[in-house]
Each structure stands twice: as C-alpha cells, then as structure tokens.
Automatic annotation (TrEMBL):
Protein name: Peroxisomal trans-2-enoyl-CoA reductase
Reactions catalysed according to its record: a (2E)-enoyl-CoA + NADPH + H(+) = a 2,3-saturated acyl-CoA + NADP(+); (2E)-dodecenoyl-CoA + NADPH + H(+) = dodecanoyl-CoA + NADP(+); (2E)-octenoyl-CoA + NADPH + H(+) = octanoyl-CoA + NADP(+); (2E)-decenoyl-CoA + NADPH + H(+) = decanoyl-CoA + NADP(+)
Enzyme Commission number: 1.3.1.38
Annotated organism of origin: Salinirubellus salinus
One record GO biological process: fatty acid biosynthetic process
Top EC group: oxidoreductase
Amino acid sequence: MAREGTEHWPATPPATALFADDLLDGEVALITGGGTGIGEEIAVAYAELGADVAIASRNMDHLEPVAERIEATGQSACATTVDVREMDRVEEMVETVTDELGDITVLVNNAGANFVTPTESLSANGWRSVVGTILDGTAYCSMAVGERMIEHGEGGSIISMGATNSVNGAPYHAHSGAGKAGVHNLMQTLGAEWAKFGIRANTIAPGIIETEGIAGAVGGELPEMLLEEIHADRFGQPADCVPLAVFLASPAANYVTGAYYSADGGHLLPNVPF
Ligand SMILES: CCCCC/C=C/C(=O)SCCNC(=O)CCNC(=O)[C@H](O)C(C)(C)COP(=O)(O)OP(=O)(O)OC[C@H]1O[C@@H](n2cnc3c(N)ncnc32)[C@H](O)[C@@H]1OP(=O)(O)O
Ligand SMILES: NC(=O)C1=CN([C@@H]2O[C@H](COP(=O)(O)OP(=O)(O)OC[C@H]3O[C@@H](n4cnc5c(N)ncnc54)[C@H](OP(=O)(O)O)[C@@H]3O)[C@@H](O)[C@H]2O)C=CC1
C-alpha cells in the first residue's frame, strides 16, 4: 500500500512540455551509452530541443534505432562504437563525432556498468571492468572532449552520471560506489580547473531507475522491498533524469559548475525521525 502523500509523485513530463523547444539549438551533444535506458531518453530529448546528437557505446545494435529516433526529430545524428575503457578508442570516437557533427559542446558521460556482489566475491577483473567503465571512461571522455573544447574556445558543458550509492557507502556495490564517488570528485576538479575556459562540469546522481541495465545489475526484477527506502514510493523512470540533463546542458545553467544533483525520489533522505 502506498504511504500517505506518495500519490503526489506523478511521472515526470516529457522535456518538450517543460522547456522552450529551441533551448538546445546549435548544440552538439555526445552521449556515451546513449543507445539504452537513461542515455537514450536524454539523447532523444536533446534532439527534440534542437541539438544535433551523437551516441556511442560498444554495441551498434543498441545505437542504430536511437539514431533513427534522433533523425526523426529533424536533427542530425551520429552513432559510433567505443569502449570507454580504452583511451585510443575514445579519441577515435571524438574524432568521428567532430567530423560528422562539428565541435562537441555538450558531453554526457552516461556509459555505466554495475553488478551487485559481496566484496569478498569480487575479482580483480570484476573491479576493473566496473571502475574502468565508470571512472576511467568518464575521465578519458572528459579529457578527450575537454581538450577540444579548450581549443575551440567556446566553453562547454560536461555532465556525468553519478549514483546515490556513492554518498554513504553501499553494501555489495564496492566497485560501483567507489567509482561513482570518483566521478563526482572528478567533476568538481574539472569544474574548478576548466572554469577559466568556460567549461562547466556537473554530476547527476540517479537513484533507482527502472532500466534493463539495473535489472541486469541486480540479477532480475528490482525487489519491491526497496520501495520502503524511497520516499516517493515508486522507482524512478529514465524520464525522471532528463530535465536535470537538459538544464545542465542549457544556458539556464551558465553559472552552475561542480554541482551534484540527485534524482532519487528522496532515497538519500533518512526514513526515521532520529
Ligand atoms: C542504490 C542503487 C544504485 C545503483 C547504482 C548504479 C546502477 C547502474 O549502474 S545500473 C546500469 C548497469 N548497466 C550495466 O551494467 C550495463 C553494462 N554491463 C556490462 O557490460 C556487464 O554487466 C559488466 C559490468 C560485467 C561488464 O562486462 P564486460 O566488460 O564484458 O565483463 P565480463 O562479462 O567479461 O566480466 C568482467 C568480470 O566481472 C565479473 N562479473 C561479471 N558479472 C558478475 C557478477 N554478477 N558477480 C560477480 N562477478 C561478475 C566477471 O566474472 C569477470 O571477472 P573474472 O571472472 O574474474 O574475469
Ligand atoms: N538505472 C539506475 O538505477 C542507475 C543508473 N545510474 C547510472 O546511469 C547511467 C545509465 O544507466 P542505465 O540507463 O540504467 O544503464 P544501461 O545499462 O541501460 O546503460 C549503460 C550504457 O552504457 C553502455 N556501456 C557499458 N559499458 C560500456 C563501455 N565500456 N564503453 C561504452 N559504453 C558502455 C551500454 O551500451 P553497450 O552495451 O552497447 O556498450 C549501455 O548503453 C549509468 O552511468 C549508470 O551507472 C546510476 C544510478 C542508478
């Protein structure tokens, strides 16, 4: 049964119902992991608001249908494969996107990886696989795109997906929690270092958002008992993360850098009065 007041947590409306339809005109956005889940929703919303959008991940099968959705809005799309854990591949991706769409003005570090496991069962390779994707990948993409943003001289926005599991520690998420904590710290560092170039760097921390990725990470359906920890009394949907990603890409956030925004239905808030 829903707790009192939780019926006041309806679905987040589409970005086009919230923002001016030309908000992202002239932007060129690159979204890693843009072929699925949260990344897909951000990619399509950016295009609907006027940006040309590139999406990149390891598997082209994920990317092609989303590129078609982007093109259906009338904007240009670029779909390219990358493993963000490899710097050479990241450099190639940035070159391809720049050749096809022009200078990148918005980078969304969304590619992510996780699986839930007791730390004593986590192998070195399992640790590297997740931390490599989350933290190395975010660093490599930010460095490759940031260098070009600096050369281009027009500033830019770097947005990275953190996670609420990095805030208080999270049992069975040793690799993911530590990697996401590093992502938040990296965005603060870049926000400080690259402010002089007009480059902003911010973090969005989703709570528990229903995607195929998280279902894989927890080994099936999300257990209903997790809702007891979520004040909104519902799991998040990818659309719940989109308005923050639009805001941070837009001129509305021109004075916002090094910030950390959670979209978690109150998951981080205490559940008891003491
Ligand atoms: C409060 C809630 C917070 C939630 C926070 C975050 C949530 C999310 O991020 S949800 C999004 C999750 N999305 C994904 O994970 C999609 C991408 N996932 C993957 O690519 C794979 O699941 C991957 C993470 C395992 C990486 O794939 P790949 O690089 O191809 O790696 P391998 O399959 O070769 O495995 C590497 C290594 O990891 C070990 N391993 C894999 N799964 C598990 C598991 N469930 N438990 C324990 N260990 C696992 C695997 O055995 C390999 O290690 P070695 O055997 O030592 O070689
Ligand atoms: N869903 C949730 O509850 C939460 C999600 N997050 C974060 O939000 C982001 C999106 O998550 P979500 O949409 O749920 O997950 P998905 O699993 O749907 O998305 C992850 C994406 O990353 C891509 N990817 C994974 N590894 C690599 C790699 N090495 N190189 C390039 N691309 C890669 C995948 O594509 P491909 O397989 O083609 O490479 C996939 O498109 C992630 O950063 C995640 O950690 C944070 C907290 C909670």
